[in-house]
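Weekly structure sync, notes
Attendees: PL (lead), two postdocs, one rotation student
Agenda item 3: pending single-chain targets
PL asked that the sequence for the first pending target be pasted directly into the notes so everyone works from the same version. It is reproduced below exactly as submitted, 97 residues in total.
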Amino acid sequence: MADSTTVSFEIDSAIKSQADSLLEAVGLDITIAFNIFVRQIITSQSIPLQAELSLGEQFGTLMEKMRKQATEEDGYLSDDEINAEIQAYRTESANGG
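Predicted structure, written out during the meeting:
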């Protein structure tokens, strides 16, 4: 197992609770989700988020909201397992699950 370190950060308790519920539904927890997120940053050399503009919202405004939200508020999966989990979640969501 790779050497590990503890990361500590604050998050709004309601947001964490919602994330916990969604992640549990796909068999993940917040630690695994964070590891997936960080690995994707490394793999893609970018922040792996899709920013969708709606109702004429400007990209700069959306990024500012995201920045504000980010400042206020042997168990690793392989890339194939991550992709399988994402695909399963998308399929379930598309089928109304």
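Discussion points:
- Helices lie at 13-25, 30-44, 59-72, 79-94.
- The mean pLDDT is 76.
Action: rotation student to compare against the earlier draft before next sync.
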